[in-house]
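R.M. (postdoc): so does anyone remember the format we settled on? I'll just put the structure tokens first.
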């Protein structure tokens, strides 16, 4: 391995390998930047969370609970509603969620 020509050939080979590795790393970086940009666009386009939720029963017909939007205890059968609909539901006898207390937030008194 004392031949300067063979050492130069090995160094050129190493250079090509490292250039390919660098190109691959740059592609990974570009892909990740694209994914993050898509995530930010998706987040910006997401509609705002509803301020009030009505959780429906198993039959889907009547309300079981009224929740403040974003309540951790709201079930999968919850639907976003306007403030007046939440107040109307409370007046019609739908129970307020005991965790988020929408009746207190809405200022609803029995």
């Amino acid at each position: 391995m004392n031949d300067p020509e063979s050492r130069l050939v090995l160094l050129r080979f190493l250079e090509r390998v490292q250039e390919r590795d660098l190109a691959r790393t740059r592609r990974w970086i570009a892909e990740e930047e694209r994914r993050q940009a898509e995530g930010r666009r998706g987040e910006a386009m997401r509609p705002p969370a509803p301020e009030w939720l009505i959780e429906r029963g198993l039959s889907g017909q009547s309300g079981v609970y009224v929740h403040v939007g974003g309540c951790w205890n709201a079930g999968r059968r919850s639907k976003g509603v306007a403030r007046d609909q939440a107040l109307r539901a409370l007046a019609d006898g739908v129970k307020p969620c005991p965790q988020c207390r929408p009746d207190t937030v809405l200022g609803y008194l029995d």
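R.M.: ...and that's the designed sequence above, right after the tokens. Also worth knowing: The mean pLDDT is 90. The helical segments are 4-45, 83-91, 102-106.
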